């Protein structure tokens, strides 16, 4: 197909994450089999990778290295000293090559963010990039974006406002005409929250009144799945707490349902009918939180969960091919330029 001639290659860090090369390679092979147009640059141990991807010919390139950045290493020091690591080499490929559109890694969040910050750089006007996973809602076909969810532990009101502006452009790129943006808080009232959140609320309201975003007010954690908003803005600390709480609750519920089903003969019969549907629900709904772009970088840097398995790696690679086409740089830069007078005034 003609489109394959123009598809950007996806760079995969094959050594990052808890499951390392076996999971990354299995996921890459699965993605290549499912998408005949996909082209990958695999960064990792060539002696292991090459024999297993030979069937895909020139659809796969290999950058050889056996060096990985561990989860507990200091991000800045590791990026500066481990220049031959899979993470750094992969980011260099993304930075230097026009034919590479995205980089995907399950490595340390801090290292991936720092590497993206140092190697790829920020879009003009962006103070801090943000992690922004997409989560499902009770409304079929509708989801919401949560940002930040772990990249920036402490944020200023202006940075939270920037997150809203960036997310607004992202959602519009996906086809949402007038994204509804909410601010995560402990109550829906304007007077609730700490000082940062209160000030951010005022700033978001001003942006909304100026027609730059559609701010619908505060939202509490138990309301995010109702389908009434398209974006939930938070700092990285509380966003991560919310995300991990959601993930933990899902695991608890699925485990509890399984235990109930296996506790009786009738339950086991029910499991025969429901088991497949529950697995499908989990795959289609909850696994969406696996991969997310660092919104605000000049090129697409996609972070997977550290415990990503082959299924999640394949899903993340497919997600990366999607975000490459959004051309977010120009959209975000223009939106932040328009918002800059108001943001500077409140800095």
How would you explain this protein's 3D organization?
This protein is of the alpha/beta class and 347 residues long. It has eleven helices and twelve strands. It folds into two domains: 1-126 and 296-328, 3-Layer(aba) Sandwich (Isopropylmalate Dehydrogenase), CATH 3.40.718; 129-289, Isopropylmalate Dehydrogenase. Strands 3-2-1-4-12-11-5 form a seven-stranded mixed β-sheet, sandwiched between helices. Helix 4 (86-96) runs parallel beside helix 5 (109-120) and helix 6 (157-173) packs antiparallel against helix 11 (328-345). The longest helix has 27 residues, at 236-262. The relative contact order is 0.16.
Low-confidence stretches: 1-5
- Average pLDDT rating: 89
Helix content: 40-55%
Relative strand content: 15-25%
Strands of the widest sheet, in order across it, are: 3-2-1-4-12-11-5
Count of DSSP-assigned helices: 11
Overall tally of structural domains: 2
CATH topology of the largest domain: Isopropylmalate Dehydrogenase
Q: Can you tell me the CATH superfamily of the largest domain?
A: Isopropylmalate Dehydrogenase
Q: How would you characterize the largest beta sheet?
A: 7 strands, mixed
Summarize, please.
This protein has 347 residues and is of the alpha/beta class. It has helices at 20-34, 46-53, 75-81, 86-96, 109-120, 157-173, 195-209, 236-262, 265-284, 310-323, 328-345, and strands at residues 9-13, 40-44, 60-64, 100-105, 130-131, 134-136, 143-147, 180-184, 214-219, 231-233, 291-295, 300-304.
List keywords for this structure.
347 residues, alpha/beta, Isopropylmalate Dehydrogenase, 2 domains, 7-stranded mixed beta sheet, 5-stranded mixed beta sheet, 11 helices, globular, disordered N terminus
């Amino acid at each position: 197909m003609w489109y394959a001639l123009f598809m950007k290659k996806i760079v995969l860090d094959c050594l990052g994450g808890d499951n390392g090369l076996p999971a990354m390679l299995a996921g890459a092979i699965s993605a290549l089999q499912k998408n005949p147009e996909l082209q990958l640059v695999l960064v990792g141990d060539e002696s292991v990778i090459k024999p297993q991807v030979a069937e895909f010919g020139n659809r796969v390139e290999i950058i050889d290295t056996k060096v990985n950045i561990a989860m507990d290493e200091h991000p800045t020091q590791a990026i500066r000293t481990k220049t031959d690591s899979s993470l750094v080499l992969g980011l260099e490929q993304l930075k230097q090559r026009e034919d590479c559109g995205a980089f995907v890694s399950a490595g340390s969040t801090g290292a991936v963010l720092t590497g993206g910050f140092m190697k790829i750089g920020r879009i003009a006007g962006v103070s801090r990039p943000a992690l922004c996973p997409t989560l499902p809602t009770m409304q079929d076909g509708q989801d919401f974006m949560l940002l930040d969810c772990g990249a920036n532990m402490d944020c200023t009101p202006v940075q939270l406002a920037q997150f809203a502006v960036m997310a607004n452009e992202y959602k519009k790129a996906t086809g949402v005409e007038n994204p509804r943006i909410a601010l995560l808080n402990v109550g829906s009232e304007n007077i609730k929250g700490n000082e940062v959140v209160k000030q951010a609320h005022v700033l978001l309201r001003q942006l909304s009144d100026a027609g730059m975003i559609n701010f619908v007010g505060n939202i509490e954690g138990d309301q995010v799945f109702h389908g009434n908003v398209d974006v939930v803005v938070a700092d990285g600390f509380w966003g991560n707490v919310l995300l991990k709480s959601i993930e933990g609750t899902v695991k608890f519920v699925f485990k509890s349902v399984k235990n109930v089903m296996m506790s009786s003969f009738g339950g086991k019969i029910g499991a025969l009918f429901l088991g497949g549907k529950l697995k499908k629900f989990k795959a289609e709904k909850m696994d969406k939180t696996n991969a997310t772009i660092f919104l605000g970088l000049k090129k697409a840097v996609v972070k997977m969960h550290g415990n990503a398995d082959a299924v999640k790696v394949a899903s993340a690679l497919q997600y990366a091919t999607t975000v490459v086409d959004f051309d977010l740089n120009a959209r975000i830069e223009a939106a932040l330029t328009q918002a800059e007078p108001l943001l500077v005034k409140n800095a």
